[in-house]
Amino acid sequence: MTLQPKCEDVETAEGVAITVTGVAQVKVMTEKELLGYACEQFLGKSVTEIKSVILQTLEGHLRAILGTLTVEQIYQDRDKFASLVREVAAPDVGRMGIEILSFTIKDVYDKVDYLSSLGKTQTAAVQRDADIGVAEAERDAGIREAECKKEMMDVKFIADTKMADSKRELEMQKASFNQEVNTKKAEAQLAYELQAAKEQQKIRLEEIEIEVVQRKKQIKIEEKEIERTEKELIATVKRPAEAEAYKMQQLAEGQKMKKVLTAQAEAEKIRCIGEAEAASIEAVGKAEAEKMRLKAEAYQQYGDAAKTALVLEALPKIAGKVAAPLSKTNEIVILSGEGSRVTGEVNRLLAELPVSVNALTGVDLTKIPLLQKMTTPQSQAAF
């Protein structure tokens, strides 16, 4: 892994704030013990998180060393400064299973132009030698950069290969561990739920026992209350009610007896009256029957003469009923231009009288000698 630790505005031994940037090449150690340290520190973390931990460690040591050196020592001997940082930081990162392959100072600068002010007296010489050494420096820098890149690529390839293997093994172990952990968690959860269910069952049984005891006490209290209420009702309601009921029963029986006797007397009265009326009706009926029998015998004996006598007896009554309305009339005036017309009307009424009687009674008045004389034209004229 390539890291670039950077410390900004860190005060040196002389109190000058400078900013230093470095470049570090690190990798995970392959030795079994050291690899175990690395697993303990970084198991389950991403590459970014691993880089952040190592970078913070390097920056911490870099900051501590800057505080012990002067600006001139840092600037003039960068390799020594870088070697010092590498020596100080190596044990700490080594305990994390990390090896520092290289560490170089990339840049050193400040914000107060302290570095630009150093060696003003040698500026001209430095400028002169600078032009000469530019080509050599560039050449050496190119060569060194190429070598560093090659080394970096080789190390990176080896580190990536080992990292892939470690990652694969790590994932396999992680899956195995997760399976075991999940199994244990499931067992623990089931055991917990089972125990919780047992405890809940015990609590419920105790609650039921308490409820049973409370219910028994409540039932006893209710039974006592029922007994008290019954006694109270017997004293306040039942006894008075029984007395009142007995009283009402006696009164009802007296009324009933009275009504029965009254009804019996009334029935006897009605029976006696009925018998008397029946006897009276029977006697009247017998008398009427005897009268009718005698009349029938007489009618049978006298024949048509008896019938004629009955009709003659009834004629005055019929005439009286017919003439009843005329009894209330004071005067009748008949208007006619001809005197013979009134006589004709009277004669016509007399002539129709035997026919009406024959139609009503079956008796022919024209066969009776007395009536034959009355129905002659001379009699009618005389009438």
The percent range for strand residues is 5-15%
Enumerate the spans where pLDDT stays under 50 for 5 or more consecutive residues: 379-383
**Remind me, CATH topology of the domain at 2-112?**
Tetrahydropterin Synthase, Chain A
The CATH class name of the domain at 2-112 reads Alpha Beta
Can you summarize the main beta sheet?
A: 4 strands, antiparallel
Name of the CATH homologous superfamily of the domain at 2-112: Band 7 domain
Gross morphology is rod-shaped
Give the second-level CATH assignment, the architecture of the domain at 2-112: 2-Layer Sandwich
- Overall pLDDT score: 78
Number of helices: 10
Which sequence of SSEs, written as H and E, runs from N to C? EEEHHHHEHHHHHH
Kindly, what is the distance between the CA atoms of the first and last residues, rounded to a whole number of angstroms?
A: 177 Å
Number of strands: 4
Cα radius of gyration in angstroms: 79 Å
Helix content: over 70%
SS class: alpha+beta
